[in-house]
Amino acid sequence: MSVSAIPIRTLKNNYAWLIVANRKHAAVIDPGEAGPVLQVLTEKGLTLDMILLTHLHPDHCGGTPELHRAFPEARIVMHPDDAGRVDFPVNQQVGEGDSIGFNENAITIMHLPCHTRGCVAYRITDYLFTGDTLFTAGCGKFFEGTATEMLANLNRLKNLPENLMICCGHEYTVENLAYATQADPDNAVLSERLATACRDEAAGRFLVPAPLSLELKTNPFLRLDNPQLQRNLGTGSDLETLIALYKIYYQQTPAT
Ligand SMILES: [Zn+2]
Ligand SMILES: [Zn+2]
Asked: Distance (Å, rounded) from C-alpha 205 to C-alpha 191?
């Protein structure tokens, strides 16, 4: 059965995502606040079955208690490494390779520790919800992990099917593409994507989700082995390239 994924803007620049099956049942990913999510649920007459959290940061789970009060049957799902550090009860703890049924589809879990210890991505049909691990044209901060750990995560993500739609936790597309252009100035697909993203943003259009196929051509964090990128950055390995990119994006040197 087909599933749709609806982005909902929350807080300053966050996305919560609603996945809908049957036009009746919904699961929400990363409700940083409840209000905008409740509004869409009401408008569409949907019942909330699950609250899936990619990690413990409040801009991703802040709306959970209020949503759970509105839908007490909804299961709250999270990885154990982050579940022990939030101030609300988690109903189901999930880890690498686990699968949760959602109507007739399965949601599978990838554990991608680094941004936090308990970071996960959720995958259902052609959608991958990456939280703050992978952004459009960028990568999240390594708050609780090393560059080596993130490299392992990125290598897993870039080998997923190219038709997957990347649904990330923040709207950073234009600024990320601008950083990417600093590292990869001769990449024509990248310049074209930046121009399109600027036009779409000015027109008030959503810039997400983005197909993995486009990320593979324009997100430098998924192109660490690209010879031209390595030459531009003066690096000789994927790990060195990752560290050099992190310095451009975050003006910090990560632990390795
Ligand atoms: Zn975060
Ligand atoms: Zn965040």
From this structure: 19
